[in-house]
Design brief:
Layout lengths: L2 E2 L4 E5 L5 E7 L2 E6 L2 E6 L16 E5 L7 E5 L8 E5 L2 E5 L14 H10 L33 E4 L5 H6 L5 E5 L2 H13 L7 E5 L2 H11 L5 E4 L4 E3 L5 E3 H14 L7 E6 L6 H11 L6 E10 L7 E11 L2
Parallel strand pairs: 1-17, 2-17, 5-6, 10-11, 10-13, 11-12, 13-16
Antiparallel strand pairs: 3-4, 4-5, 6-7, 8-9, 14-15, 16-18, 17-18
Length: 320
């Protein structure tokens, strides 16, 4: 029976060469994405900024209605087609999207590291040299060693940075309802030199795909879940987090077994506690060994007297 941890965790990421949280406060944050700096809304930055002036190339100005919206305003020219960035051995294109994001979620970096540690890494061709994680891949520890490569399912996979990060460990099935996002993910794979890795790129409704995988009797070693609060599938299916999450977790549990390594669930922009997510996993994973943990994702500001900016809540099951 999976043990439910009582204490909440903080998974805090730090900046790297191509990304950093420069400052935050007053409901906004200043970040660097390679050569460019941007200001975006951040309701959880309740404190005052550390710096009196923010020098940014662009700012996303939110809409005035409750449905969100907004637009980018640029002080200097920024490539509309995007520009290349890297995390570890993964290269990808950053771009100012109409949804205020820039093509990836930097707070997921410690999650990608954690999932890599949980899987048994196997050497795969196509890595990018010159950075951490490139070159020789460490052998799996004896306690985790299993025959063959580890298979991962990435539901709501977006532009594929997490998929590419895990592709060094074995086959990955990448599912997203957005044709444009999947196309961008495939382009990121080519940019990373990972186009030949065993990745299935699927434009599909995540919940429907998971249900079909259960009927097929398939299983995975790890599952990543990053569902939006609201979304639509490729056939105009409607997704609402509060209505669909429980049944999706039910199907994901059926795709895992006692030899599987993890399920990692992140939730953004909802009025919900990580305890609620942990309780949901505890109900569905009661028959498996391992541990259920929960907490918050955060990003540390750069420099002295830095603060942790919370970004999302999470719950995770990890096998023994």
């Amino acid at each position: 029976m999976a043990d439910l941890a009582g204490q909440s965790l903080i998974m805090a990421g730090e900046g790297w060469a191509d990304y950093g949280l420069v400052d935050s406060g007053g409901g906004r944050k200043l970040e660097r994405y390679g050569l460019y700096r941007f200001i975006r809304p951040e309701p959880q930055a309740l404190w005052s900024p550390r710096f009196a002036q923010w020098n940014a190339d662009g700012e996303f100005v939110p809409g005035s209605d409750e449905e969100g919206g907004g637009r980018w305003q640029f002080a200097r020219k920024v490539p509309a087609e995007g520009w290349p960035l890297a995390w570890n051995d993964v290269r990808f294109t950053a771009q100012c999207t109409p949804f205020r994001h820039l093509g990836f979620f930097p707070d997921m970096a410690p999650v990608w590291e954690w999932m890599r540690e949980r899987l048994s890494p196997l050497p795969l061709a196509g890595g990018v040299g010159g950075g951490p994680g490139s070159g020789a891949v460490p052998a799996p520890s004896p306690s985790r060693k299993r025959e063959g490569a580890m298979s991962t399912l990435n539901l709501f996979g977006y532009t594929g940075v997490g998929t590419l990060a895990l592709s060094r460990c074995g086959p990955v099935t990448h599912v997203d309802a957005s044709k444009k996002s999947v196309a961008q993910a495939r382009e990121n794979a080519a940019l990373s030199g990972m186009a030949e890795r065993p990745i299935r790129w699927l434009v599909d409704d995540a919940a429907k795909f998971a249900a079909r995988e259960v009927r097929r009797g398939n299983r995975y070693d790890g599952i990543i879940l990053d569902p939006p609060k609201f979304g639509r599938g490729p056939a105009n299916e409607t997704w609402r987090l509060e209505e669909g999450l429980a049944s999706l977790i039910t199907d994901c549990r059926r795709l895992l077994d006692a030899n599987s390594r993890f399920l990692f669930l992140t939730v953004y922009a909802v009025r919900m506690s990580s305890l609620a997510l942990a309780g949901l996993l505890a109900e569905h994973f009661a028959d498996l060994p391992g541990t259920i943990e929960h907490g918050e994702l955060a990003i540390a500001e750069e420099g002295e007297a830095s603060r942790l900016l919370p970004t999302a809540i999470f719950a995770r099951w990890s096998g023994d």
